[in-house]
TrEMBL record:
It catalyses: cytidine(34) in tRNA(Ile2) + L-lysine + ATP = lysidine(34) in tRNA(Ile2) + AMP + diphosphate + H(+). InterPro entries: Rossmann-like_a/b/a_fold, TilS/TtcA_N, tRNA_Ile_lys_synt, tRNA_Ile_lys_synt_N. Keywords: ATP-binding, Ligase, Nucleotide-binding, tRNA processing. It comes from Candidatus Dojkabacteria bacterium. This is tRNA(Ile)-lysidine synthetase. It comes from the Bacteria. GO terms for biological process: tRNA processing. One of its GO terms (molecular function) is tRNA(Ile)-lysidine synthase activity. Gene3D superfamilies: HUPs. Its EC number is 6.3.4.19. The keyword ATP-binding applies. The keyword Ligase applies. It is an enzyme of class 6 (ligase).
Amino acid sequence: MFKILTKIPNDIGLAFSGGVDSLAIAHFLKMGKKNVTLYHFNHMDEYSPEIEYKCCHLADLLHMKIVVDSFSGDIPKGRSIEDVWRRARYRFLRSCDQKIITGHHLDDAVETWVWSSLHGEGKLIPVESANIIRPFLTTEKQTFINYCKNNNLDPVEDECNKDLSLMRNYMRANMMEHLYKINPGLKTVIRKKYQPLKESLK
């Protein structure tokens, strides 16, 4: 089951892509009688209209309110499209007048730590920042996959996740498997790094 790092308020927002992570969390919060508002950010790429439609459909099935915002503007020359989208997405989430959960999990935390280590200093994804909370950073992605299967949930598949020109996707597809072979306990290492933070957030 899910490992939760910090308290989740009864009235809560959820960054919602419709993917396996956010869909599992939405259903889990619903089962926990939380009052959830979904927040979906449309990146305005070729796949976004269909993804937004599916997210709105899932919101109807879950009987949850959904708020949608969209990317506007151009991608500055020389800037990573991933970074521009991420910054725009967080501007949207931070403009919301409530706490917002994001679906970051342990696999994300490991990837972030490895990537930042390659650039000089291993960094953890923060559990809390401004109105954003990330309670599931010590829960493995496979837990979300299993939850969706066990509850007959049909997540949205984002074709952008297959685009290996995006650095995070390339790293996930070509690097992480080898790192886990070198150090099968890598997830345990990162999970332990969050333990002091969990204690401080009680």
